[in-house]
Amino acid sequence: MAELVIVRNPNPESSLGYLLWVPVGDGLVFRTSDTWPRTKALYCHPADRSEWPGPAALDVVERTPLLSCARHGAAIDVVADRRSERRSQIVFTRARGREMVFWQSPRTRKQARPQVRTPTARAAGADGELEIVVDSHERYAYRFAGQQVRTVGRALPVGDYGVVVGERLVAAVERKSLPDLVGSLINSTLRHAVAELATLPRAAVVVEDRYSGIFAQERVRPAKIADSLAELQVRHPSVPVVFAETRPLAEEWTYRFLAAASEWARDEAVVAERIDGAASEIGTDAPAAPEATTAEVRAWARSAGLDVPDRGRLRPEVWAAYRAARARD
User: Fold this and answer.
1) Which pLDDT belongs to residue 135?
2) Residue ranges of the chain that CATH labels 4.10.320.10
């Protein structure tokens, strides 16, 4: 019966303390950091078979009889002959521009891609359609397809997604992929972006990955990234950095955050009007709402029954009517 064999790496300078023998073909040897992918997928560095120790130096940690060990495409499926920790998979993939190999189990694979469905229920307090302003420079923007959302593209002064209440930008979310987060922490652009977000009544940064992904970085010191992120949160506690695991979950979180911020801002404005002398948290320091585009105003004017040309500038009274209508909304 074929066996999966794990021995201690005789090289004391290696950060990967084990050698893994996989009985496929003439045998595959990998350096790895643990004896089984219990809590996370294990990185496996392909090694030459000559690195496998001879009988005298062989320090066997575990021999596991196998029911099956076969390659299917870019993965090797391994089934052990035991009751627990039976199934695993050695996956050949490409990341950061180079070939990589990972050893994963059903448990770690589920953790890496959580099998959850984002809810389609409207956010609490969101009456009707929520208008979300998407920065015109945002590439591959969220569509919020499963929610009652209308998106408009404009140049936001800060953030990638925002909501406007009372002609003020009251909340914004900055979206980051993990590589973008790491890069912007290294070159300090995120520090400036968060400082600008902190000028808003409500703001946040959402990351389309897990916090643990920071410690899987290879070309930078993970501790430096973690320290920079912690320092940023201490410096600007009003702007949380939320790790949402995946892009769909980040999109879902962004929708509900902006919906909650919109409801809060409307309630805040009502309270400030009803209570004499009450200072609104929105204040006058919040940035003005980004100006609508000519195409957007032209479309509104036609829906309102106003006569406007197909192209060119719009009359000042059309812009005034649009702003007045927006103020009443």
Assistant:
1) 92
2) 294-328
Q: CA torsion 280→284→286→292, rounded to 10°?
A: 120
Q: How far apart are the first and last CA of the chain?
A: 74
Gap between the Cα atoms of 25 and 2, Å rounded: 12
Cα-based distances in Å from 303 to 223, 306, 307, 308: 55, 8, 10, 11
Tell me the C-alpha distance between 307 and 302, whole Å: 7
Specify the CATH number of the domain 130-274: 3.40.50.10130
CB atoms within 10 A of CB 8: 14
The pLDDT mean for the chain works out to 85
Where does CATH 3.40.50.10130 sit in the chain? 130-274
Q: Residue 280 has what pLDDT?
A: 54
Indicate the angle between helix axes 178-186 and 222-235, nearest 10 degrees: 80
The CATH homologous superfamily of the domain defined by 294-328:
E3-binding domain (4.10.320.10)
Reference 29, options 67, 58, 1; nearest CA is 58
Q: Is the pTM of this model over 0.85?
A: no
Rounded to 5°, the CA angle 287-289-290 comes to 105
- Tens-place pLDDT, residues 86-105: 999 998 887 666 788 999 99
Q: Could you give the CA distance from residue 89 to residue 79 in angstroms, rounded to a whole number?
A: 9
Q: Output b/e per residue, 239-276; b: 16+ Cβ within 10 A.
A: bebebbbbebbbbbbbbbbbbbbbbbbbebbeebeeee
Q: Which range is most confident: 105-109, 171-175, 281-285? A: 171-175
Does residue 8 contact residue 16 with C-beta atoms inside 8 Å?
Answer: no
DSSP state for residue 143 in the 8-state scheme: -
Alpha helices in 83-218 (DSSP H): 106-112, 178-186, 189-197
Tokens of residue 200, six digits = 């808003």
